Amino acid sequence: MARNATNKLLQKAKKLKSDEFYTQLSDIANELQYYKEHFQGKVVYCNCDDPKNSNFFNYFVLNFKKLGLKKLITACYKEQTNDLFDTKETEHAFFYEYSGTENGYLNQADFVYFKGDGDFRSPESIELLKQADIVVTNPPFSLFREYVAQLMKYGKKFLIIGNINAITYKEIFKLIKENKVWLGINLGRGISGFIVPDHYELYGTETRIDDAGKRIVSPNNCLWLTNLETSQRHEDIVLTKTYAGNETEYPRYDNYDGINVNKTQDIPYDYAGYMGVPITFLHKFNPDQFEIIRFRKGNDGKDLSINGKCPYFRILIKNKRI
Ligand SMILES: C[S@@+](CC[C@H](N)C(=O)[O-])C[C@H]1O[C@@H](n2cnc3c(N)ncnc32)[C@H](O)[C@@H]1O
Q: Which of 6, 7, 110, 134 is deepest in the core (most CB within 10 A)?
Protein backbone atom coordinates (compact mmCIF):
# COMPACT_ATOMS: atom_id res chain seq x y z
CA MET A 1 0.00 0.00 0.00
CA ALA A 2 1.31 3.47 -0.82
CA ARG A 3 2.83 5.23 2.17
CA ASN A 4 0.39 8.07 1.97
CA ALA A 5 -2.56 5.73 2.09
CA THR A 6 -1.06 3.85 5.07
CA ASN A 7 -0.55 7.14 6.89
CA LYS A 8 -4.09 8.14 6.19
CA LEU A 9 -5.38 4.84 7.53
CA LEU A 10 -3.26 5.17 10.67
CA GLN A 11 -4.50 8.70 11.22
CA LYS A 12 -8.06 7.61 10.77
CA ALA A 13 -7.56 4.75 13.22
CA LYS A 14 -6.09 7.14 15.80
CA LYS A 15 -8.92 9.58 15.35
CA LEU A 16 -11.54 6.90 15.59
CA LYS A 17 -10.02 5.42 18.76
CA SER A 18 -11.46 8.00 21.11
CA ASP A 19 -14.64 8.02 19.04
CA GLU A 20 -15.13 4.53 20.44
CA PHE A 21 -15.12 5.51 24.09
CA TYR A 22 -18.41 4.52 25.68
CA THR A 23 -19.55 6.36 28.76
CA GLN A 24 -20.13 4.59 32.08
CA LEU A 25 -23.48 4.87 33.82
CA SER A 26 -21.80 5.99 37.06
CA ASP A 27 -20.10 8.93 35.35
CA ILE A 28 -23.37 9.99 33.72
CA ALA A 29 -25.24 9.82 37.04
CA ASN A 30 -22.41 11.69 38.77
CA GLU A 31 -22.80 14.66 36.46
CA LEU A 32 -26.54 14.58 35.80
CA GLN A 33 -27.35 14.89 39.51
CA TYR A 34 -26.61 18.64 39.26
CA TYR A 35 -29.09 19.39 36.48
CA LYS A 36 -32.27 17.62 37.58
CA GLU A 37 -34.47 20.71 37.57
CA HIS A 38 -33.88 21.26 33.84
CA PHE A 39 -35.53 18.05 32.66
CA GLN A 40 -39.12 18.37 33.83
CA GLY A 41 -41.46 18.00 30.82
CA LYS A 42 -38.55 17.98 28.36
CA VAL A 43 -37.64 15.99 25.26
CA VAL A 44 -34.09 14.63 25.50
CA TYR A 45 -32.16 13.63 22.40
CA CYS A 46 -29.11 11.35 22.49
CA ASN A 47 -27.99 11.58 18.88
CA CYS A 48 -24.76 9.57 18.98
CA ASP A 49 -26.10 6.59 20.87
CA ASP A 50 -27.05 3.05 20.11
CA PRO A 51 -29.81 2.32 22.63
CA LYS A 52 -28.63 -1.30 22.68
CA ASN A 53 -25.42 -0.26 24.42
CA SER A 54 -25.61 3.42 25.41
CA ASN A 55 -25.60 4.27 29.09
CA PHE A 56 -27.09 7.66 28.25
CA PHE A 57 -30.13 5.77 27.01
CA ASN A 58 -30.05 3.57 30.13
CA TYR A 59 -29.73 6.56 32.43
CA PHE A 60 -32.70 8.40 30.98
CA VAL A 61 -34.90 5.29 30.87
CA LEU A 62 -34.03 4.49 34.51
CA ASN A 63 -34.67 8.08 35.60
CA PHE A 64 -37.47 8.90 33.17
CA LYS A 65 -40.16 9.36 35.84
CA LYS A 66 -37.90 10.89 38.46
CA LEU A 67 -36.79 13.58 36.02
CA GLY A 68 -40.32 14.04 34.70
CA LEU A 69 -39.21 13.62 31.09
CA LYS A 70 -41.68 13.91 28.25
CA LYS A 71 -39.76 11.86 25.71
CA LEU A 72 -36.36 10.31 25.07
CA ILE A 73 -35.11 10.00 21.50
CA THR A 74 -32.00 7.93 20.89
CA ALA A 75 -30.38 7.76 17.47
CA CYS A 76 -27.80 5.26 16.37
CA TYR A 77 -25.31 6.06 13.64
CA LYS A 78 -24.01 3.40 11.28
CA GLU A 79 -21.08 4.10 9.08
CA GLN A 80 -22.00 3.14 5.54
CA THR A 81 -19.17 1.35 3.80
CA ASN A 82 -18.90 1.54 0.06
CA ASP A 83 -16.38 -1.23 0.00
CA LEU A 84 -17.27 -3.77 -2.69
CA PHE A 85 -15.32 -6.46 -0.85
CA ASP A 86 -17.03 -5.93 2.43
CA THR A 87 -19.05 -9.05 3.01
CA LYS A 88 -20.68 -7.86 6.22
CA GLU A 89 -24.32 -7.15 5.88
CA THR A 90 -24.69 -3.40 6.20
CA GLU A 91 -26.32 -2.50 9.47
CA HIS A 92 -28.88 0.20 9.38
CA ALA A 93 -28.96 3.40 11.34
CA PHE A 94 -32.11 3.90 13.36
CA PHE A 95 -33.73 5.84 16.12
CA TYR A 96 -35.90 4.82 19.00
CA GLU A 97 -38.42 6.89 20.89
CA TYR A 98 -39.26 6.17 24.50
CA SER A 99 -42.10 7.88 26.33
CA GLY A 100 -41.91 6.07 29.64
CA THR A 101 -44.71 3.66 28.88
CA GLU A 102 -43.13 0.28 28.25
CA ASN A 103 -41.10 -0.08 31.42
CA GLY A 104 -37.82 0.55 29.64
CA TYR A 105 -38.17 -2.44 27.39
CA LEU A 106 -36.20 -1.98 24.21
CA ASN A 107 -38.28 -3.50 21.50
CA GLN A 108 -36.49 -3.88 18.18
CA ALA A 109 -39.85 -3.80 16.41
CA ASP A 110 -40.13 -0.17 17.45
CA PHE A 111 -36.84 0.91 15.87
CA VAL A 112 -37.41 3.44 13.11
CA TYR A 113 -34.83 3.01 10.39
CA PHE A 114 -33.17 6.07 8.86
CA LYS A 115 -32.89 6.24 5.12
CA GLY A 116 -29.34 7.51 5.55
CA ASP A 117 -26.54 6.71 7.99
CA GLY A 118 -27.97 8.56 10.99
CA ASP A 119 -25.11 11.08 11.02
CA PHE A 120 -25.97 13.82 13.54
CA ARG A 121 -25.61 16.29 10.64
CA SER A 122 -28.03 14.47 8.36
CA PRO A 123 -31.43 16.07 7.64
CA GLU A 124 -33.19 13.11 9.28
CA SER A 125 -31.25 13.52 12.52
CA ILE A 126 -31.66 17.30 12.42
CA GLU A 127 -35.45 16.85 12.22
CA LEU A 128 -35.26 14.95 15.52
CA LEU A 129 -32.93 17.57 16.95
CA LYS A 130 -35.54 20.23 16.22
CA GLN A 131 -38.06 18.32 18.36
CA ALA A 132 -35.65 18.11 21.28
CA ASP A 133 -35.15 20.47 24.21
CA ILE A 134 -31.92 19.07 25.59
CA VAL A 135 -29.18 17.02 23.94
CA VAL A 136 -27.12 14.82 26.22
CA THR A 137 -24.37 12.53 24.98
CA ASN A 138 -20.72 11.85 24.41
CA PRO A 139 -20.30 12.71 20.71
CA PRO A 140 -17.39 11.66 18.46
CA PHE A 141 -14.43 13.74 19.60
CA SER A 142 -13.16 14.04 16.06
CA LEU A 143 -16.29 16.02 15.10
CA PHE A 144 -16.56 18.03 18.30
CA ARG A 145 -16.38 21.52 16.77
CA GLU A 146 -19.05 20.72 14.22
CA TYR A 147 -21.14 19.03 16.85
CA VAL A 148 -21.20 22.07 19.13
CA ALA A 149 -21.71 24.46 16.20
CA GLN A 150 -24.85 22.55 15.21
CA LEU A 151 -26.27 22.67 18.74
CA MET A 152 -25.70 26.42 18.84
CA LYS A 153 -27.21 26.86 15.40
CA TYR A 154 -30.44 25.18 16.50
CA GLY A 155 -30.44 26.93 19.89
CA LYS A 156 -30.44 23.69 21.88
CA LYS A 157 -29.63 23.16 25.53
CA PHE A 158 -26.99 20.49 25.98
CA LEU A 159 -24.74 18.56 28.28
CA ILE A 160 -21.98 16.69 26.48
CA ILE A 161 -18.59 15.12 27.04
CA GLY A 162 -15.53 16.42 25.23
CA ASN A 163 -11.77 16.47 25.49
CA ILE A 164 -10.29 19.13 27.82
CA ASN A 165 -8.34 20.39 24.79
CA ALA A 166 -11.61 21.52 23.30
CA ILE A 167 -11.43 24.60 25.55
CA THR A 168 -8.50 25.76 23.46
CA TYR A 169 -10.35 25.45 20.15
CA LYS A 170 -10.97 28.95 18.86
CA GLU A 171 -14.68 28.33 18.27
CA ILE A 172 -15.29 26.74 21.68
CA PHE A 173 -13.28 29.32 23.62
CA LYS A 174 -15.28 32.08 21.96
CA LEU A 175 -18.52 30.54 23.25
CA ILE A 176 -17.06 30.22 26.75
CA LYS A 177 -15.84 33.82 26.68
CA GLU A 178 -19.27 35.02 25.59
CA ASN A 179 -20.83 33.08 28.46
CA LYS A 180 -22.91 30.97 26.08
CA VAL A 181 -21.27 27.71 27.12
CA TRP A 182 -19.42 26.63 30.25
CA LEU A 183 -17.74 23.67 31.90
CA GLY A 184 -19.83 21.17 33.79
CA ILE A 185 -19.03 19.94 37.27
CA ASN A 186 -16.75 16.96 36.60
CA LEU A 187 -13.55 16.97 34.63
CA GLY A 188 -10.26 15.08 34.38
CA ARG A 189 -10.18 12.41 37.08
CA GLY A 190 -13.74 13.40 37.94
CA ILE A 191 -14.74 11.26 34.94
CA SER A 192 -13.64 7.81 35.98
CA GLY A 193 -13.18 6.17 32.58
CA PHE A 194 -14.74 4.89 29.38
CA ILE A 195 -15.71 1.45 28.21
CA VAL A 196 -13.78 0.43 25.10
CA PRO A 197 -14.48 -2.35 22.61
CA ASP A 198 -12.64 -5.68 22.69
CA HIS A 199 -10.39 -4.74 19.78
CA TYR A 200 -9.12 -1.66 21.63
CA GLU A 201 -5.54 -2.20 22.71
CA LEU A 202 -5.18 -1.64 26.45
CA TYR A 203 -1.85 -0.20 27.49
CA GLY A 204 -0.44 1.93 30.28
CA THR A 205 -1.56 2.17 33.86
CA GLU A 206 -4.83 3.95 33.25
CA THR A 207 -6.61 0.81 32.08
CA ARG A 208 -8.51 -1.91 33.85
CA ILE A 209 -11.19 -4.55 33.51
CA ASP A 210 -14.19 -3.92 35.71
CA ASP A 211 -16.21 -6.44 37.76
CA ALA A 212 -18.52 -7.08 34.82
CA GLY A 213 -15.54 -7.82 32.55
CA LYS A 214 -15.81 -4.52 30.69
CA ARG A 215 -12.59 -2.95 29.45
CA ILE A 216 -12.13 0.54 30.88
CA VAL A 217 -9.64 3.26 29.97
CA SER A 218 -9.24 6.37 32.09
CA PRO A 219 -7.73 9.07 29.90
CA ASN A 220 -8.36 11.71 32.62
CA ASN A 221 -8.51 14.37 29.95
CA CYS A 222 -12.23 14.82 29.43
CA LEU A 223 -14.79 17.32 30.59
CA TRP A 224 -18.49 18.04 30.49
CA LEU A 225 -19.51 21.03 28.46
CA THR A 226 -22.94 22.57 28.86
CA ASN A 227 -25.22 25.56 28.60
CA LEU A 228 -27.47 24.37 31.44
CA GLU A 229 -27.28 26.50 34.55
CA THR A 230 -26.08 25.15 37.88
CA SER A 231 -25.81 27.01 41.18
CA GLN A 232 -22.22 25.77 41.50
CA ARG A 233 -21.04 27.97 38.67
CA HIS A 234 -22.17 31.05 40.56
CA GLU A 235 -20.06 30.28 43.60
CA ASP A 236 -17.13 32.64 44.05
CA ILE A 237 -13.58 31.40 43.94
CA VAL A 238 -12.27 32.16 47.42
CA LEU A 239 -9.32 34.53 47.05
CA THR A 240 -6.85 34.89 49.88
CA LYS A 241 -3.75 36.47 48.33
CA THR A 242 -2.92 40.14 47.93
CA TYR A 243 -1.07 41.77 45.08
CA ALA A 244 0.03 44.72 47.17
CA GLY A 245 3.30 43.76 48.82
CA ASN A 246 3.68 40.57 46.68
CA GLU A 247 4.26 42.21 43.28
CA THR A 248 7.34 40.11 42.50
CA GLU A 249 5.23 36.92 42.62
CA TYR A 250 3.16 38.21 39.73
CA PRO A 251 5.46 39.17 36.83
CA ARG A 252 4.09 41.37 34.05
CA TYR A 253 3.82 40.15 30.46
CA ASP A 254 6.14 41.57 27.79
CA ASN A 255 3.33 41.84 25.27
CA TYR A 256 0.20 42.58 27.30
CA ASP A 257 -0.70 44.93 30.09
CA GLY A 258 -1.32 42.26 32.70
CA ILE A 259 0.24 40.05 35.35
CA ASN A 260 0.87 36.32 35.31
CA VAL A 261 -0.79 34.08 37.90
CA ASN A 262 0.36 30.46 38.01
CA LYS A 263 -2.47 28.94 40.03
CA THR A 264 -6.14 29.78 40.24
CA GLN A 265 -6.02 29.86 44.05
CA ASP A 266 -3.23 32.47 43.85
CA ILE A 267 -5.35 35.06 42.02
CA PRO A 268 -4.93 38.21 44.15
CA TYR A 269 -8.19 39.71 45.38
CA ASP A 270 -6.93 43.29 45.12
CA TYR A 271 -5.72 43.45 41.50
CA ALA A 272 -8.03 45.43 39.25
CA GLY A 273 -6.20 44.93 35.93
CA TYR A 274 -5.81 42.00 33.56
CA MET A 275 -4.47 38.70 34.87
CA GLY A 276 -3.29 35.63 32.95
CA VAL A 277 -4.43 32.38 34.59
CA PRO A 278 -4.11 28.69 33.62
CA ILE A 279 -6.94 27.19 31.54
CA THR A 280 -7.97 25.05 34.53
CA PHE A 281 -9.36 28.32 35.93
CA LEU A 282 -12.42 27.69 33.76
CA HIS A 283 -13.43 24.80 35.99
CA LYS A 284 -13.96 27.26 38.87
CA PHE A 285 -15.00 30.27 36.79
CA ASN A 286 -17.94 32.28 38.11
CA PRO A 287 -19.13 34.78 35.49
CA ASP A 288 -20.44 37.09 38.24
CA GLN A 289 -16.96 37.35 39.73
CA PHE A 290 -14.69 37.44 36.68
CA GLU A 291 -14.79 38.48 33.04
CA ILE A 292 -12.85 36.56 30.41
CA ILE A 293 -10.90 38.93 28.18
CA ARG A 294 -8.93 36.79 25.75
CA PHE A 295 -6.93 33.64 25.29
CA ARG A 296 -3.24 33.02 25.01
CA LYS A 297 -2.08 35.90 22.84
CA GLY A 298 -0.60 39.28 23.66
CA ASN A 299 -1.08 42.53 21.76
CA ASP A 300 1.44 41.46 19.12
CA GLY A 301 -0.60 38.34 18.30
CA LYS A 302 2.11 36.12 19.79
CA ASP A 303 1.83 33.89 22.86
CA LEU A 304 1.96 35.80 26.14
CA SER A 305 5.57 36.01 27.32
CA ILE A 306 7.59 37.03 30.38
CA ASN A 307 11.19 38.08 29.69
CA GLY A 308 10.94 36.36 26.34
CA LYS A 309 9.68 33.05 27.80
CA CYS A 310 6.13 31.81 27.45
CA PRO A 311 4.44 30.20 30.42
CA TYR A 312 1.78 27.60 29.61
CA PHE A 313 -1.27 28.86 27.77
CA ARG A 314 -3.00 31.53 29.77
CA ILE A 315 -6.49 32.97 29.79
CA LEU A 316 -6.67 36.69 30.45
CA ILE A 317 -9.30 37.62 33.00
CA LYS A 318 -10.41 40.62 35.02
CA ASN A 319 -12.04 40.81 38.42
CA LYS A 320 -15.52 42.32 37.94
CA ARG A 321 -15.90 43.36 41.55
CA ILE A 322 -13.01 45.84 41.80
C1 LIG B 1 -17.33 8.59 21.88
S2 LIG B 1 -18.53 7.45 21.27
C3 LIG B 1 -19.75 7.58 22.51
C4 LIG B 1 -20.93 6.69 22.34
C5 LIG B 1 -22.07 6.97 23.33
N6 LIG B 1 -22.59 8.31 23.11
C7 LIG B 1 -21.60 6.83 24.74
O8 LIG B 1 -21.32 7.84 25.37
O9 LIG B 1 -21.45 5.71 25.22
C10 LIG B 1 -19.17 8.34 19.89
C11 LIG B 1 -20.28 7.65 19.14
O12 LIG B 1 -20.67 8.48 18.06
C13 LIG B 1 -20.97 7.68 16.92
N14 LIG B 1 -20.72 8.52 15.75
C15 LIG B 1 -19.58 8.64 15.04
N16 LIG B 1 -19.75 9.51 14.04
C17 LIG B 1 -21.03 9.95 14.11
C18 LIG B 1 -21.81 10.84 13.35
N19 LIG B 1 -21.28 11.47 12.31
N20 LIG B 1 -23.10 11.04 13.71
C21 LIG B 1 -23.62 10.42 14.79
N22 LIG B 1 -22.93 9.55 15.55
C23 LIG B 1 -21.64 9.33 15.22
C24 LIG B 1 -20.05 6.49 17.04
O25 LIG B 1 -20.63 5.39 16.40
C26 LIG B 1 -19.95 6.30 18.55
O27 LIG B 1 -20.88 5.37 19.01
A: 134
